[in-house]
From TrEMBL:
The keyword Phosphoprotein does not apply. One of its GO terms (molecular function) is phosphatidylinositol binding. GO terms for biological process: determination of ventral identity. Acts as a ventralizing factor during embryogenesis. Inhibits axin-mediated JNK activation by binding axin and disrupting axin homodimerization. This in turn antagonizes a Wnt/beta-catenin-independent dorsalization pathway activated by AXIN/JNK-signaling. The gene is Aida_0. This is AIDA protein. InterPro entries: Aida_C, C2_domain_sf. It comes from the Eukaryota. Residues 4-151 form the C2 Aida-type domain. Keywords: Developmental protein. One of its GO terms (cellular component) is membrane. Belongs to the AIDA family. PROSITE patterns: C2_AIDA.
Length: 153
């Protein structure tokens, strides 16, 4: 993984820690070395913070891949541009093709940033950072499970 430490706090500014609990997938058990790439993008798909990768998942069980890892968003919430979103791309290794593929993605918009648990829907690849042509991954109720903690000085 390429996780970064929490930024120094600034008076009146809010930092966000997101705990990636688990992701629901119908073929969760078949994913090899799954991990999640987290990025913060503006409406044009431009990175607003450094991109971070989680370590490989802790365990796979039934229809869930469990991560339980904290991501420190590398910008104060107040400094993120209007329309920004936090993206989560679920990636796994494909031995036959010898490369790591993105299976699906999810994203959280600024109005969804609030303390506590949140579940967000999964979308089909390719990742659409501009959020124009979104297609749900499946009709089944499968989600990315997150828990948010806000740190304010």
């Amino acid at each position: 993984g390429t996780l970064l430490p929490r930024l120094p706090s600034e008076p009146g500014m809010t930092l966000l820690t997101i705990n990636i609990e688990k992701i629901g997938l119908k073929d969760a058990g078949q994913c090899i070395d799954p991990y999640i790439t987290v990025s913060v993008k503006d409406l044009n798909g431009i990175d607003l913070t450094p991109v971070q990768d989680t370590p490989v998942a802790l365990r796979k069980e039934d229809t869930y891949v469990h991560f339980n890892v904290d991501i420190e968003i590398q910008k104060h919430i107040e400094k993120l541009t209007k329309g920004a979103a936090i993206f989560f791309e679920f990636k796994h290794y494909k031995p036959k093709k010898r490369f790591t593929s993105t299976k699906c993605f999810a994203f959280m918009e600024m109005d969804e940033i609030k303390p506590g648990a949140i579940v967000i829907e999964l979308y089909k690849k390719p990742t659409d950072f501009k959020r124009k042509k979104l297609q749900l991954l499946t009709k089944k109720p499968l989600y990315l499970h997150l828990h948010q903690t806000l740190h304010k000085e």
